[in-house]
Write a structure and sequence with these properties.
- It is a single chain.
- The chain is α+β, with helices and mostly antiparallel strands.
- The chain folds into 2 domains: about 50 residues, no CATH class; about 80 residues, no CATH class.
- The chain contains 7 helices and 6 strands.
- The strands form 2 sheets. The protein has a 4-stranded antiparallel β-sheet. Strands 1-2 form a two-stranded parallel ribbon.
- The radius of gyration is 17 Å and the shape is globular.
């Protein structure tokens, strides 16, 4: 049996939290039982983390980072990815109060794309990023530390 591709355009964003959890659990169960593949589009990375094996982070219609879910959460490289992850709420009020949310400012983040355009690069096995030469050098340093 061929795996099916189901495209989900934020299908759960308007649902009540308890109903949302039931739908997510049902989707995960169906995925295993029927060998389904979902293309799950959402802004809520905590939900995406629960349901996804791999995550592609998209900024202005371009994939800027792609990795296995836990690899992406453990080593987010692109500043947009880091900003999204920093905005995920935590249930601990003390941690939430003291956390710093990163703001993605593409004009300040990128290094001269006019003379050195970005390309799709595999930083580590299965972890890809859209970056130019100078950014790649910086990401490799971050990854190694």
């Amino acid at each position: 049996m061929e795996p099916e591709l189901i495209i989900a355009d934020e299908p759960i964003s308007a649902l009540d939290v308890s109903i949302r959890a039931q739908v997510i659990n049902l989707l995960a169960e169906l995925q295993k039982q029927k060998d389904l593949t979902y293309l799950f589009i959402a802004h809520d990375l905590s939900v995406v983390r629960f349901i996804s094996d791999r995550i592609a982070v998209i900024y202005k219609g371009k994939i800027v980072e792609l990795a296995e879910t836990e690899k992406l959460f453990a080593h987010p490289l692109h500043p947009y990815t880091r900003s999204l992850l920093s905005a995920i709420p935590t249930p601990n009020p003390r941690v939430e109060k003291s956390k710093v949310i990163e703001i993605y400012q593409p004009d300040k983040e990128h290094f001269d794309y006019a003379s050195n355009p970005p390309e799709w690069v595999e930083i580590e096995p299965g972890h890809f990023i859209l970056a130019n030469d100078r950014e790649i050098e910086n990401y490799k340093k971050k990854f190694q530390s």
